[in-house]
Amino acid sequence: MTAIVEPNVSMDALVRRSLRYGLIPPVVPEFPDITVGGGFAGTAAESSSFKYGFLENTVNWIEIILADGSVTLASRDFKSDLYHGAAGTFGTLGVITLLEIQLVNAEAFVQLTYHPVNSMREVVAQVQKATEDHDNDFVDGILFKRDRGAVITGRFIKEPCPSLPVRSFTQARDEWYYLHVEQVLADTNTLKAEVVPIRDYLFRYDRGAFWAARYAFTYFAVPFTHFWRWALNSLMSTKILYHGLHENGMAQHNIIQDIVLPISRVEEFLEWIDENYAIYPLWLCPIRQSDEESFYPLMDGMMDEKKNERLSWEEKQPMPIRSAKPKDHEQDDLLQEQAIVPTHEKELLMSLGVWGPQLPDPDDFLAENRKLEHKVHELGGIKWLYAHCHYTQEEFWTIYNKQWYDELRAKYHATGLPSVYDKTRFDWDSERRAIQGSWLRWLFSFYWWIWPVPGIYGVLCVLMNSDYLAF
After folding, report:
1. Predicted local confidence at residue 312, as pLDDT
2. How many Å apart are CA 443 and CA 450, to the nearest integer?
3. Which of 40, 46, 166, 431 has the CA that lies 20 to 30 A from 384?
4. Cα 77 from Cα 6, distance rounded (Å)
5. Residue 309: its pLDDT value, please?
């Protein structure tokens, strides 16, 4: 089954509607207000990605308005270069107006099992083991310290088991999910299972934005207790928090990085993070590699493989539904057929969320982020470009597939649009030059960063925003 959606449809709206028919998208990003178009154009993965890959791998075709005003469809079989190029390139080839996304069978509940881990090596090994269990529908992990964490596996179930507790994570009275996991580890160091309603599971990290909202409590000197989390719940959704964070500019002073590495290099990276930053918690999400061409380079030199290499067919992989080749723009009824996705036996990838508290000195902020970027590149990984990007233009294009991307932009008349680098770079130097060039800007900047001015401004922006008023 599939759903045809406009790009601004949120994942929450799509999940609510598809669940009426016992279906959900194969990959549901963890925040309900992420849109289908945003997940496709900006890259998205979640705990089912060890089976299905990225969200873009579950989209059958797109309708896109090109820069010359023409409208076309693109799929794996029709203008496939445009279809693959539009994924993860932030709208720099055109404006997507429709997508067909695959749907898979779902149940009303997910049974979670918490697997305690006591070292970085163990968390990597446990994730690898969990992904090899074909009964698992979901796998992710949280590392709270270098020697304490959990790998969480999930399986669909129709009804709760009478012997297991049922937990929810979307109500004001509920504990934030990561705090609940931490409490589970504190209560027992053995396997523990529970049942969660499917929508609560899919958006379990929304309240508190994983754990980033905890830094707001620290900033405003508000006690981080269950009472205050309950009292401030209307401010604690990811959409509200991120709105305030971007309005007050404080996102420019935190380490906010999402990166992906071959799983064989993850332990080394975790050790490096511990030694250089000691940022915890860390989120770990395994992802199946795809054979499909992409703007993002494949890991460990895979990009150099011959294009015509014979593909292997793995019957144990999921079987997403693919539409037949789109014939023209007016086509309304697209035939659907089931096909096994061809895959190589490639190394599993691991996405890691590294989200740290504020760095007071802008120079430290820039230096620390660039140091992290260089380490990721050294280990054969890449970063997702919705996170802060501090590469120079030369560095950027030694990592990402410039020749292929430039040829696509020329072919589809997109050279007049901003490039991916233009849209994702963090131009700290220009901001600093503007401040130094005007005493008024310098004076404003000086007073702006006096505590708690930016924080209060962000809260006021949130309170006056229609999203909050409609909450």
Report:
1. 32
2. 12
3. 431
4. 21
5. 33
Locus of tokens 């796998």: 139
What is residue 2's predicted lDDT score, i.e. its pLDDT? 97
Q: How many angstroms separate the CA atoms of 264 and 451, rounded? A: 43
Instruction: Give the SS3 label for residue 311.
Output: coil
pLDDT at position 376 is 94
One-letter amino acid identity for 149?
Answer: G
Asked whether the CA dihedral 196, 201, 205, 206 is positive or negative, the reply is: negative
Measured CA to CA in angstroms, residue 361 lies from 238, 253, 356 at distances of 26, 8, 14
* pLDDT value for 198: 98
Nearest to 177 by CA among 200, 143, 146: 200
What amino acid occupies position 385? L
Contacts of residue 226, Cβ cutoff 8 Å, sequence gap at least 6: 175
* Residue 171: other Cβ atoms inside 10 A: 10
In angstroms, rounded to a whole number, what is the distance separating the alpha carbons of residues 159 and 330? 43
Sign of CA dihedral 164, 169, 133, 320: positive
Burial class (CB in 10 A: 0-12, 13-18, 19+), 427: exposed
In this prediction, residue 360 carries a pLDDT of 58
Ranges of the chain whose pLDDT falls below 70: 189, 298-345, 358-363, 431-432, 466-471
User: How many secondary structure helices (H) and strands (E) does the chain include?
Assistant: 19, 16
User: Which of 292, 311, 289, 308 shows the shortest CA–CA distance to 300?
Assistant: 289
Question: What angle is formed at CA 350 by the lines to CA 377 and CA 348, rounded to 5 degrees?
Answer: 105
What is residue 6's three-state secondary structure? Answer: coil
Q: Which amino acid is at 160?
A: P
